[in-house]
Amino acid sequence: MIDSHYEWQVLADSVTDEEQALATTLNMPTVMIQLLKQRGLTSRTEIEAFLNPSPEEINDPFMLHDMERVIDRINEALMNGEHITIYGDYDTDGITSTAIMYETLMMLDADVDFYVPNRFTDGYGPNKDVYQRLITQGTQLIITVDNGVAGHAAIDFANEQGADVIVTDHHEIPSELPAAYAIIHPQHPASEYPYKYLSGVGVAFKVATALLEEIPQEMMDLVALGEIADLVALTGENRVLVTYGLKMLAQTTRPGLQALMELAGVGLHEVTAEQVAFGITPRLNAIGRLQSAQIGVELLVTQDPERASDLAQQVNQLNDTRKQIVAEIVTQAKEQLAELDLTTQKTIILAGDGWHEGVLGIVASQVVELTHRPTIILTQENNKLKGSARSIDGFDLYQALAPHAELFSAFGGHAGAAGLSLATDNLAALKKAFEHEADVQNVQLGMKAPLTIAKEISVTAVNEQLFAAIQKLAPFGNSNEQPYFKITGNVSDIKQIGADKKHLKFNLMTNESKLAALAFGQGELGDGLLIDKAPVSVVATLSENTWQGQTSLQLMVKDIQQGGLAIIDQRTNKLRPDNFKITGQYVFFNPKVMQQLLPYLNAESTAIAITNGDQLVDNGTTILVDLPKDLSDLTLLQGHQFKELRVIFYTAQHVYLESLPTKADFAKLYKYILGHADLPIRAELPKLAKFLQIGVNQLSLMITVFFELGFVRIESGVLNVLPNPKHADLTTAPSYQAWITKQAIEKSLIYSKTSELTTTLTDLMS
User: Which residues does the UniProt record annotate as the domain DDH (predicted)?
Assistant: First the structure.
């Protein structure tokens, strides 16, 4: 059995008469009507407007509060030759916002530069020390992009110094606004702007449009990057901006973007929101996670191809470094997780010495994905802890942590994410408080994260027509997610692919058709998939794969579920403590092996000695530790229902790869023994094996055969020939037969492919 990681929630059921009628009217597949209905679109007018985004939906920028005041102030600065500084942010939304505002003012011949705060030295948003430095250097007007709405102290300082600050932002409005010269925000309390969900780059783009008195289409590639990266709702005006922005991105003339897209493998002829989200955004975000993001803005605005190529290489290398750092911290985090009792613990707080603070949010997200628990990841340095928190649905991080402000030297965030700093001495209190708040908010252990599934369809229903129809819903993103489908079939051609076999590739099939499926990060499930034994259900999106000029459909698998028994292959010839971390019942066929390994089992696990007649327990994890003496020993598994069956099948001595001794080998040994009385066989065994040119294990077997058949006697490790032994067939000796049996068992249970082992065990159990 393979259990799903998520709680599947299928939305659409059978087609209603109303849906069928609308599908006929619009000449669409009924599944499309259901997908549109799930997006709140039920009328022909709404559907046609959604499927055909129009530039007419781009709102007048002067509908934003303070826009006229902003344009007048910037024009005044232009006429007076004032020095303007664009004050940005270090993520992709901030970088693209900075680039748009900078390019716009450069087009107007402004005396302008830009400053992107450093995550590690400046922090997020307006910084008083930086403002002081900028003003001292001659800045008279500061324009924030993607920040500023909560920057009271720094803005007050700028006002005292006679410098004006224009805030353009989209983050949550505080109860009291800063005393800026003007504030452009789609959710400003005095604003009548009809669309509230612009990102920072969207707001900067509105200012650029107002300044230039036309929509600067050449900047829409940057708008698409920032909006997709910031996970704003891809509805309404954002949907229009991103739709046209992706078209501009596919034909961008920016040398830096061209170079970065080539390195990221993002096609220039057609660019999707998914390619941006997984190919470009991580690279741009990596800059600010590891160093100053100034080069990110330069990458986007430079017109020098050589400089652009150099910057793109730097950015790509930073992303590779970021991935390596994340992987190392996640490995260490998993080691800490293994020490926790997740059967009772509702929250997770992990801390490590010197963990890179720029990637802790990514690590926290991965731990949440693994455990489905609110998580805080901290790095420790000089008796101080600093880190990031990520949450699950139904748990408000801000509400959980804000009441414990006395524990923090710095704290900020919202329901889903937060950043915090504290003294190391407060860590124990934080763990206690975090767990208490989980009880207050009624976090339930064992609950899976929900996964919304648009519809259950058959393998045969997946075709080019369906794929083409679904693409009309793009661009996909927040509030317009790519639809997941539940599809069931049998599996074949299972392969674990990629570095360290991390990914899983297989075919999902019925009698009528077959679909390729790819599951990133789920390679470990390959050992448990039962080929042709039980139907497999997957939750997946539809995708296209082009290889050697041929394009075919494939499933991008998010989750897998299979009935029946999951058999996990953990065979090894060297036991390690890691083999015994899983809680379950450990089955031993050799009591001596059990006694040796008992200290390695955790307190919740049990040891089952088959020779003692111990009884197996159903519905848990069962681990077969050592090798049985006979395949029939495995019939003990019959009639039992386990959550999963893990097999180690350890044996200290492998015989499968060693050939049985021949009659000539036996004759050579017997002749030697006849000529050497009182042979100290224990001490001389390796030397004798070398002299006779026979393997040590083979020699040991031959001596045992002679002993069992009465050809020799062994007393105190000394071997002598017995006089007048009875004739006997060497192959009838018990040890000889046991060798043959062990070879057969090893062939079947150790030296077989995982799929062959799975078949053997399921056949034995049934």
Answer: 83-226
